[in-house]
Design brief:
Blueprint lengths: L2 H19 L4 H6 L3 H26 L9 H10 L2 H19 L11 H49 L4 H16 L3 E7 L2 E8 L6 H13 L16 E6 L5 E6 L13 H20 L1
Antiparallel strand pairs: 1-2, 1-4, 3-4
């Protein structure tokens, strides 16, 4: 089997493994919905709770239907995030006031008991919203950290197994693509020009990006897109230099990422760069 076929097969296998390990949960997919859709869904949950409350009011009494409005708040905080859950809090209090307190179908509250129930609903729902949203954020960050660790571990394992450098380069690009949900390119320096070794996620390398990549290799320092001295570049670059003298540059296009640019992307990129430098150095030594 030729090396090119091995490279493509290895990359596809690695990509499948990462896609399975990093598969988004239902909540991850929901949080990526447009903001308007998430708020609309949260308000729809409040409307559903109101319909249920109106049908059960005679059985449980008006003050007790407030508990039903905690349910959409919890669901909104868990699935859609903190903002939509707070919208559910406000909508739930207004709905309770409008439909279940005297005088009915106004926002006035005549009974001290109903006032207490509305205030209790507001505070309870707000606290539940904050706790549920924080729990969701923590769980999401834990899943992302575990996925990053798994992606980096697999690349490191390929280096330990002394897999062909071409396979490792492809796997490194796939790893960064899945970690950042952004297009990734790996370029090689050859006689003053750059040639692509891996293109994952459909990156578009413009002339300004090439200048930034060459500058990154020349200075041996990372370059950030849209910032001096390469304000027209859209790709962040990191240099990779092996013991054998071979030079690569890793590029991530955060301007086309599915998520916003992470605070410290270098934490993952530099680990991958280290693996590549080691793999290329071993190749040169061989």
């Amino acid at each position: 089997m030729s090396e090119s076929v091995m490279t493509i097969g290895g990359a596809n296998s690695f990509r499948s493994k990462l896609e399975f390990a990093g598969a988004e949960t239902f909540r991850d997919e929901m949080i990526r919905l447009p903001v308007a859709a998430r708020y609309a869904a949260s308000l729809s949950l409040v409307a559903l709770a109101t319909a249920v409350a109106m049908s059960t009011e005679r059985l449980v009494g008006s003050p007790n239907v407030t508990l039903l409005y905690v349910i959409p708040v919890v669901l909104a905080a868990t699935v859609f995030g903190w903002g939509p859950s707070m919208a559910a809090v406000v909508a739930g209090v207004l709905a309770f006031d409008f439909f279940f307190t005297e005088p009915r179908y106004t926002l006035e509250i005549a009974s001290p008991t109903d006032i207490g129930a509305a205030v209790l609903l507001l505070f309870t729902a707000a606290i539940v919203s904050a706790v549920a949203a924080e729990a969701r954020r923590t769980a999401h960050e834990a899943r992302q950290a575990a996925f990053r660790a798994e992606a980096l571990r697999v690349v490191g394992h390929m280096v330990i197994e002394a897999r062909p450098a071409a396979d490792i380069i492809q796997a490194a690009a796939v790893s960064l693509n899945r970690i950042f949900r952004a297009p990734v390119v790996v370029l090689a320096d050859g006689a003053g020009s750059l040639s692509p070794l891996a293109l994952i996620g459909g990156p578009v390398v413009m002339e300004a990006d090439e200048r930034a990549a060459i500058g990154c290799l020349g200075s041996k320092l990372p370059s950030r897109a849209q910032i001096y001295p390469f304000p027209d570049s859209r790709i962040d670059f990191w240099p990779v230099t092996s013991r054998s003298g071979r030079q690569l540059v890793l590029g991530v296009d955060f301007t086309r990422a599915e998520r916003s640019r992470p605070v410290a992307p270098e934490r993952s990129v530099e680990v991958v760069a280290g693996y590549l430098a080691l793999a290329l150095g071993e190749e040169g030594a061989a």
